[in-house]
Amino acid sequence: MAVGLSNPGILPRVGDPVVVEYDGYRPDYCRHCRIYRPPGTRHCSDCDACILGHDHHCVWIGKCAGEGNIKRFYVFVTSVFAMLVVYLFAILNAHKNMVYPAV
Q1: How far apart are CA 90 and CA 34, in angstroms?
Q2: Cα–Cα distance for residue pair 77/48, rounded to 1 Å
Q3: pLDDT in tens, 30-87
Q4: What is the separation of C-alpha 27 from the centre of its chain, rounded to a whole number of angstroms?
Q5: Which of these is catalytic: 30, 50, 58, 64?
Q6: 40: Cβ–Cβ under 8 A, 6 or more apart, which residues?
Q7: pLDDT of 22 strictly over 70
Q8: CA 27, CA 39: separation in Å to the nearest integer?
């Protein structure tokens, strides 16, 4: 639940775009947000925002996985996978111990 409530790294929209160079790199301009994006930032059309360290937009958490919540996202994915493995083992164990009536 923490991953769904955390900020993925949304860049704030400002009035006038300011060009800031990052180690000699001139950032790209986002025409949707009207800002200059730092390196590693992409615009998400689902969130309608530029996300710093954008990985992808996840439908399971309802927002982007970015620099601000990527660690929580990995914990979320790992816990879902672990619950799936435990659930499958429980089903297989219950099926193995099941006694079928003779026909």
Answers
A1: 52
A2: 24
A3: 889 888 888 888 999 998 999 998 889 988 888 999 998 999 999 999 999 999 999 9
A4: 23
A5: 58
A6: 52, 53, 54, 67
A7: no
A8: 6
**What's the chain's Rg over C-alpha atoms?**
22
User: Is-catalytic flag, 50?
Assistant: no
Calculate the CA 15 to chain-centre distance.
28
SS3 per residue for the chain: CHHHHCCCCECCCCCCCCCCCECCECCEEECCCCEEECCCEEEECCCCEEEECCCEEECCCCEEECCCCHHHHHHHHHHHHHHHHHHHHHHHHHHHCCCCCCC
pTM attached to this predicted model? 0.72
- Domain definitions of the chain by residue range: 2-96
